[in-house]
What we know:
Helices cover 4% and strands 45% of the residues. The protein is mainly beta. It is elongated.
Amino acid sequence: MVICICVKLQRETGVSCSWQAYISMKQGSVVKMSHLNKKLFSTGAAVITLRAFVPNPFMIGEAMAQATASDTMNITANVVNPLKVTEVTKFNFGSFAVSAVAGSRVVPANGGAVVMNNGVDLGANVLGKVTIKAPQNASFTIEIAALATKSIVIKNGTGGSSKKTMKVEQLTLNASTKMKLGGVAGGSATFIQNGNTNTSAVIVHAGGVATAAIGGILNFKPTQLVGSYTGTYALVTSF
């Protein structure tokens, strides 16, 4: 706090002069009076008035504290998997009889006629069917990784001997018009052992769901044992 001393000198002649000095209470020292007319002071009457003086912090170099406030803000995110593959119908190569030489059975994914290379076709084949779900117009990949280095083996019982196993070396996917395969709506993609094992895909349907039929080629031996053969593989979709 600063005390301001105002001194008014009144000369006998009626002429007055005035001045003021500031006493800094903070520093504990008195600022010297300046411009004091000693003659007037000695001959006149001095009237001294004390009043409180509130300093301006911007004038005396003292900064005022800045008001602040804060809060902890949150960030969230949610990772989901919009892709889904569902087997609707199991792929069945049907029934056939083997011949004296090795052969193959071709079941086209487009629903065309079955082709027997040696052996006898007895029908009963059923195309596989799969439902694929993905965001509309989002590009993704369909892959059958099992064919990357070897064939898919189907077995009679637990397999074991070559007489109780057969090999699937090629599978074909034929899409509905709601899905593009290789850039073609309603197109097809072939997955081959030691060859192409994936394809690009886009579902163009607004619902984000499409279906595809599955066909393939099965190789058999003349020594093949009679019975039912089964096997599995993974059809994988990914971004």
